[in-house]
Amino acid sequence: MNVPETTAGHVFEVPDTMTAPPRTDAEVPDYVRALGLPGLADIHVHFLPQNVLDKVWQYFDNAADNYGRDWPITYRFDTDTRLSIVRELGIRAIPALTYPHKPGMAAWLNDWNAEFAAAHDDVIHCGTLYAEPECADYVPKALAAGATLFKVHVQVGVFSPDDAVLDPAWRALEEARVPIVIHAGSAPLPGTYTGPHAVGNVLERFPQLSFVIAHMGMPEYDEFADLAERFDNVCLDTTMFASGYFSDPAEVTPAYRERLAGLEDKVILGSDFPNIPYPYVDQIAGLAALGLGDDWMRSVLWTNGVKMLGLDRSQEPD
After folding, report:
1. Cα gap 180→211, rounded to integer Å
2. Where would you tag: which of 10, 183, 184, 248 has the fewest CB atoms within 10 A of its CB?
């Protein structure tokens, strides 16, 4: 067995038939090249206005009270440094996911997103929304301005995704075929509206919506996998899954591994950079330790994200 040890101290066993995964962030680019990939397509990366980011980091600094465990921010650096890090890791198009925690916030976050993307050629123009009547106006406005990826956080926003006030926004996003990374699972903290039921209700009304279920839907893994199997444009992102923090590869059941193998074209790399309590490499090594093969890793690390984000596919491996 190839047994890499990450800088966080996690040891993951990987079948000899697979490419040995990286042990440190510095080894990630070589691993990606060994798989024959031109880079990483990570759909779950955060860049935020500094005042918002400060509040997010403050929340995680109190994680022992909120989650019952420490959550040190591994990449607590300024914006330029964080951009350099994700570029060095090999992320070819950089999401700048934002999300509001109260009404009246989403529109100005969308304005910030437009400015941030305009300032950096490799940053994806992102958008967000809140369950408020104004979303019927600012979501189409963001789409018209060029937003190609949205983020919704059900637990932080404390609203139900099937609230009828959101229907005009969902309709606009469905028509635009723009993916939405949605954190709707009930972990790390359950919320009033978390869980798969409301997401399923939205998909019943808008079956062509491109939902990307953050964190694989943790902890309602199977229920959200059901949605990915049922609806053409629903995918799962790997954020924190099998990274050794909330879940370890060895804890993933054979039945769920089999489901993931069958969902090879619907699992997309996500990381939650920079707000993760471990090195980026742990996400990559943990996924490899599922033992689903190099082809599965190629699909997850690159092909599926490229397809969902509508990126240039000319560099894809044969």
Report:
1. 5
2. 248
β-bridge partners, 267: 236
Would you say how long the chain is, in residues?
A: 318
Q: Are 266 and 304 in contact (CB under 8 A)?
A: yes
- Amino acid identity, position 106: A
Instruction: Please give the Cα distance from 292 to 297 (Å, whole number).
Output: 8
Taking residue 254's Cβ as centre, other Cβ atoms within 10 Å add up to: 7
CA distance 108 to 26: 36
- DSSP label of 10: -
Question: In this structure, is residue 272 part of a structural domain?
Answer: yes
- The structural domain count of the chain equals 1
Whether 198 is in a domain gets the answer yes
Token pair 């690159």: residue: 302
CA distance 46 to 151: 10
Range of the domain at 43: 25-94+183-309
In a domain, 65, yes or no: yes
Q: Is residue 130 part of a domain?
A: no
**Integer angstrom CA distances of residue 170 from 210, 240, 308:** 10, 27, 17
44-79 pLDDT, tens digit each: 999 999 999 999 999 999 999 988 899 999 999 999
Q: Is the pLDDT reported for residue 1 higher than 50?
A: no
Angle between helices 254-262 and 221-230 (to 10 degrees): 20
| DSSP per-residue letters across 101-153 | SSTT-HHHHHHHHHHHHHH-TTB--EEE--SSTTHHHHHHHHHHHT--EEEEE
- pLDDT of residue 315 exceeding 60: no
| Runs of H (alpha helix) within the chain | 28-34, 50-61, 63-66, 79-89, 106-119, 135-145, 154-157, 167-176, 196-205, 221-230, 254-262, 281-288, 294-298, 304-309
Q: Among 281, 302, 317, 240, which Cα is nearest to 92's?
A: 302
Please tell me the distance from the alpha carbon of residue 154 to that of residue 163, in angstroms, as a whole number: 11
Report the run of H or E that residue 194 belongs to, with start and end.
none
